[in-house]
Amino acid sequence: MKAIVTGHASGIGFYAAKQLHHLGYEVYGIDIRVNNILSNEIKQKRCDLRSEPESLVTFSEIGDFDIAVNCAGVSGVRKPLKDFSLEEYQQSFHDVFSPLFNALKQEVNLANINNDKRRRIINIASVTAAYGAKNMAAYSAAKAAIVNLTKVAAVEHAPDIFVNSISPASIDTPMIRAKHKGNLPDYSQTYLTGDCGLDSDVFSVIEMLLKNEFMTGQDIKLDGGYSSMFDIKR
Q1: What is the model's pLDDT at position 9?
Q2: Cα dihedral 166→73→52→164 (10° resolution)
Q3: Residues 139, 173, 70, 167: what is their CA dihedral angle, to the nearest 10 degrees?
Q4: Structural domain of 142
Q5: Which of 16, 34, 150, 192 would give a disulfide with 44, using CB separation of 3.0 to 4.6 Å?
């Protein structure tokens, strides 16, 4: 069995690549950089997934697959909407959205070459796709586009490809820690679970989607109960 993980060099993608290898998959990691501490059994390919020509070449080299987990992306520019120029907004949106778009396009094209088995594609979005948040005009809109693109891909390629997305809230990753200068903030008043999530929590949902035979075109919020709260400030 073959698995593709985009954005495998760090964070959720890094954890997913390792776990899929432990489950017996032949894992191909695609990222703009490589990770030197990953097992040599994981085949790493350096690629800027924002580039369609680069993406085409890389996926052509990998070929057919069984599952794909698309984690590649960046945090983008974070500032108020009023301070964006249209060009800057479009560039930030492109940096967040295009790596997933190019990966998904290449994956469905590879899968459609040979329809003798069902493939599964899992896109990592964000809970911010469903809510308004300050300074996230480009990032949140790009993640919302990923959620909807997931649904479109599921409809267009049913029943041969199951396509779902996961929308995590705060997950303890190097990117989150770098944002807060190495220390996680206190999430006890933010999430019902009392803290942020772990990359292992995200992978537990990935594992469920690998086994489930009755779920496609869905977005799963992994948000510590945040979306269940309605808190009127007094």
Answers
A1: 94
A2: 0
A3: -60
A4: 2-226
A5: 34
